[in-house]
Amino acid sequence: MPAVQETIDQVRMIDVDQYKYGFETLIESELAPKGLNEDIIRFISAKKEEPEWMTEWRLNAYKRWQAMEEPSWARVSYPKIDFQDLHYYAAPKNQTGPKSLDEVDPELLKTYEKLGIPLREQEILAGVRKQGEPSELDENPSDNVYSSGRVAVDAVFDSVSVVTTFKEELAKAGVIFCSISEAIREHPELIQKYLGSVVPVSDNYYAALNSAVFTDGSFVYVPKGVRCPMELSTYFRINERNTGQFERTLIIAEEGAYVSYLEGCTAPQRDENQLHAAVVELIALDDAEIKYSTVQNWYPGDSEGKGGIYNFVTKRGDCRGNNSKISWTQVETGSAITWKYPSCILRGDNSRGEFYSIAVSNGHQQIDSGTKMLHLGKNTSSRIISKGISAGKSQNTYRGQVSAHRKAANARNFTQCDSLLIGNDCGAHTVPYIEAKNATAQFEHEATTSKISEDQLFYVMQRGIPEEEAIALIVNGFVKDVIQELPMEFAVEAQKLIGISLEGSVG
Amino acid sequence: MNLHAQNTLTEAETALVNGYSSRFSDLPGDADVTVRRDEALELLKQGLPTRRVEAWHYTDLRRLLSVVPDFKPVANAEAVDPLIENALVLPVLNGAAHGRAAGPEGLTIATLADKLQEGALSAEWLTASDRFDAVGAINAAFVSDGYWLDIAEGAELSRPVELQNIHAGGQVHGRFVVNAAAGSRATIIERQTGVGDALASSVTHLDVADGAHVFWILLQEQPDDAAYLGQFTASLGKESSLTLFILNSGGKLVRQEVKVEARGEGSEFKLRGVNLLGGETHCDVTMVLDHLAPDTVSTETFRNVVTGKANGVFQGQIRVAKIAQKTDAKMACNTLLLSDDGGFSSKPELEIFADDVACGHGATVTDIEKEHLFYLMARGIDEKTARGLLVKAFVAEVIEELEDETVIEALEARLVDWFAEHG
């Protein structure tokens, strides 16, 4: 993507911070007043035209949240958050579905261009091309609606979902892909059945907060036996000042269904910290498979550690059915603070959980991330590959739990966490919890911490590659196992992202 | 933290606190020591740690330490046979040091009671390291005796020294101090055992000065109804080395803490451990290893066998300070979980602030490999025997690394005993 290269060059030239999504889009928006109370929650619920039960659900969550204490066990430190000093709702004005390119706010369009969302999708986003029509950009334009490489996008701007593409085409296959607000209105039976069934309202402090005030997010339902014809994707963007973003994602794969979903996140560069507390719930029934990938690139703060997003996220997948599979892949390069443990509950017999993670921290970033694999069913297996890279003055912690319950016969886990340290002002930490209560369980865990060896660096540099690029090259080799798990379209972008995140870490 | 404020003390906590007022007059120490004991008691009054405290995540002491027996001042504890025949035995029997024998050349022996009485101990002495240092606090409040050994500069002890902390039920709280001066060399054996229902605690301070080498063997073989709280702390000087071997086989509730600071450049720490867990034992080994100087090397290997309703815990934390470049630290914890009623939890942590290091840890939990079993059974060995052989081989591997033939033989004999008892 030439635009990306150009940005990199520009950043290099001005030699300041390396964040390339730090622009702000000047779009008129509607803001709820600052603060959090029952009225605000009713306001959000009313804005979303939610049914009464949903409002009650939120209020209940709010009550529980008030009784909870902020967790302090993670290896991150930050000044106390004033939850009353945030806007809990912000929405771009005039966003009633663009019909043609002229109707799309040019600023919004630019935003997506800058975000580097593939052109084809921009076309869709902008509404120039009708959904379901083959694009000129398609290599093989045909009536095959299941052509690979297409991505349906749900774009979430601050508190609301702006547009969802490919809806009709997905509907043909029976797949529901829409914003969660829409799902609450259109598919209440599914929401009532599944929302909060994996991450209960009072699961933890931030999950309770999210349950009370979540404003939007994506909803995916893949019916029995359907293989979702394309990649689904959501782009989250925090744009407005002093807002918290609380999105909620719910993905349900019915018996034998398959879906691959990707989320990307960015935010403008600001001096103050912004809060992002999301909840993601995945449910895989018998023989179903969900693949969930994240490229998280929230604004990490400047080189002095000022500003940046606080990313406190609860992600959990429930392999509810037999032979089901959930796979998490994450590339974490952004956020001032990350607190995130995508987990799998392996309830169904023969179910499988996977977690592939790359966490890159630079500057003053703090990451405390990892996974949980809870083996409950028989013959369940899980695999964890975590690669942490710390540079600058950052702290990068892997925290994970693997447990086999008494009845989890033949539970199998393999965990590998490797950390790479660049520079001597950073820290890398590993805190795994391994708990076996069944004799037939077989758990293996290994972790290593090292730096890029001088031999490796010398080998690459003597071929005329500058040091910074050489490091990026070696790092990309280090993270290869995880990159391979990403959908192809995003693997390239993720690789570049890692390179950019590490810029300025040498010397 | 108000989170941990406990309004009402449990029965065991009350027994501990009340025990102090009745025991106080019999405890040795000058005014300074009394102040420290009182401080320790204040901590106990705040209640024992629960699993909400990270260091006690898998051992909820408040719940597990349900009974605190009374002291039995007149009980008759007897010294046990030494692990190695020619060792100098220094026993602490029912809380009182009984060995007054002269040691081998280069060794000065004093009793801890005398040292406490003399006073002039450094400030951190008898002080719990933090609010949740329950082992340190209980021991500081109640410690009655023990030994204080000084090994002279450059001395190589001609025979091993065996320290014994033996109870005959009730409560015993012992403490050992060993200062190995520069360039000295010694083998020390520590025994923790007894007969009957007991609460035993023991704290060891080992100082390995520059260029000194210490081989320490800790055998914890408490009876099935005893609770044992142990804390082993060591500080390593420049170019010094410490090899620590720990065998846990017994006890109802066992917490063995190991805190080692590699302070001197080029120091080396080697920890080998075997936990043989059967019956209903709950055994927790918690290690914190600080690499505080450059070029330090450490390797830790634990092998655990879990049978019956036993529950094992290993928490191992390796911390590498910013200054400790070129640290080489490796930790492994391998568990054979042989029973569905048993459990094993491990938490091998790395906390690294230096970039030029090679650190790693591995942890496994599994049953015996089917292939291995098949290999033996294909040779006509019945399953039970084959399993026994494999389990023994699994732990023997760690012992065989110890290099000292006499010690290896003596330890292997203990394995045979344990397996004979636990099938």
From TrEMBL, chain A:
Superkingdom, taxonomy of origin: Bacteria
Family: Belongs to the iron-sulfur cluster assembly SufBD family.
Domain SUF system FeS cluster assembly SufBD core: 236-478
UniProt GO BP: iron-sulfur cluster assembly
InterPro entries per the UniProt record, alphabetical: Fe-S_cluster_assembly_SufBD (IPR055346), SUF_FeS_clus_asmbl_SufB (IPR010231), SUF_FeS_clus_asmbl_SufBD_core (IPR000825), SUF_FeS_clus_asmbl_SufBD_sf (IPR037284), SufBD_N (IPR045595)
Protein name, per record: Iron-regulated ABC transporter membrane component SufB
Pfam families for the chain: SUFBD_core (PF01458), SufBD_N (PF19295)
Domain SUF system FeS cluster assembly SufBD N-terminal as annotated: residue spans: 169-228
PANTHER family documented for this protein: FES CLUSTER ASSEMBLY PROTEIN SUF, UPF0051 PROTEIN ABCI8, CHLOROPLASTIC-RELATED
TrEMBL record, chain B:
Domain SUF system FeS cluster assembly SufBD N-terminal: 36-162
Stored Pfam families: SUFBD_core, SufBD_N
Ranges where the SUF system FeS cluster assembly SufBD core domain occurs: 170-394
Family in the record: Belongs to the iron-sulfur cluster assembly SufBD family.
Name of the protein in its database record: Fe-S cluster assembly protein SufD
Gene name of the record: sufD
